[in-house]
Amino acid sequence: MAYRNGTYVAFHADGTNVPGGNSDIDYYNLLCAWNANKHHDFQIINTHEKFSAVRDSSQKSTLRAGLMERLRNSKNMLLIVGDTTRFDTDWVPFEIEKAVDTYGIPIIVAYTGISYAIRIPSEHSGYWPPALASRIKNGTASAIHIPFKQAPIYSAIDQFDHNNLPLGGGLGIYNDAAYSGWGIP
Questions:
Q1: Any residues with CB less than 8 A from the CB of 69 and at least 6 apart, and which?
Q2: In angstroms, how far is CA 67 from the centroid of its own chain?
Q3: Residue 178 domain-assigned?
Q4: How far apart are CA 174 and CA 156, in angstroms?
Q5: pLDDT by residue (tens digit) across 152-176?
Q6: Could you give the C-alpha distances from 42 to 84, 124, 138, 142, 148, in angstroms and in order?
Q7: Is 25 exposed, middle or buried (0-12, 13-18, 19+ CB in 10 A)?
Q8: In a domain, 52, yes or no
Q9: Does the N terminus or the C terminus of the chain have fewer Cβ atoms within 10 A?
Q10: Burial tier of 60 (Cβ tally within 10 Å: 0-12, 13-18, 19+)
Q11: CA distances from residue 31 to 53, 58, 78, 148 in whole angstroms, order as listed
């Protein structure tokens, strides 16, 4: 059995690995910078290297196997959700499907355009990739919905894993006291 101690980070790169574009890679890079500063120590399962293989179909099966191995060793998934995430039709849906259906790990859904407490996750369903939306709807996903802010991300990474799923099924949220403690309205 795999030792599940990492956090698998998934995001829509929109076909690029160049920061400053219209993809979620900037937020992934910010996450890496937070982690490098040693404010908090968690192991990121790096999906960033997938970009070099995305356009080469001969490498897709190798890439797929590598992603499965990383998911197998993960205790949770951090899904960075921005304006374009729902349009990914390749890797993000695959990663969500395997995280939920195969490995039973919770998804920490971190919204990039939100700076306030998320109290009703369904209000943000327009940003969900279809793979996430369908699993929330059918009750198979365990997810917590948070803004892309350091304190709630670290809290969720520390708190939730395959043995400790968020309450609320696919629509889990933190309470007002938690947000107050983080200074988030």
A1: none
A2: 14
A3: yes
A4: 9
A5: 999 999 999 999 999 999 999 999 9
A6: 26, 27, 31, 21, 16
A7: buried
A8: yes
A9: N
A10: middle
A11: 22, 30, 10, 9
The number of distinct structural domains making up the chain is 1
In-domain check, residue 89 = yes
Per the structure, the complete domain to which residue 159 belongs is given by 6-182
Could you tell me the two tokens for 54?
């995305």
Q: What is the CATH number of the domain that holds 157?
A: 3.40.50.11200
* Residue 54 confidence class, pLDDT cut points 50, 70, 90: very low
Instruction: Scan for tokens 């009750």, then name that residue.
Output: 139
Token reading at 25? 């890679």
Residue 1, domain member (yes or no)? no
3-state secondary structure the chain: CCCCCEEEEECCCCCCCCCCCCCCHHHHHHHHHHHHCCCCCCCEECCHHHHHHHCCHHHHHHHHHHHHHHHHCEEEEEEEECCCHHHCCCHHHHHHHHHHHHCCCCEEEEECCCCCCCCCHHHHHHHCCHHHHHHHHCCCCCEEEEECCHHHHHHHHHHCECCECCCCHHHECCCHHHHHHHCCC
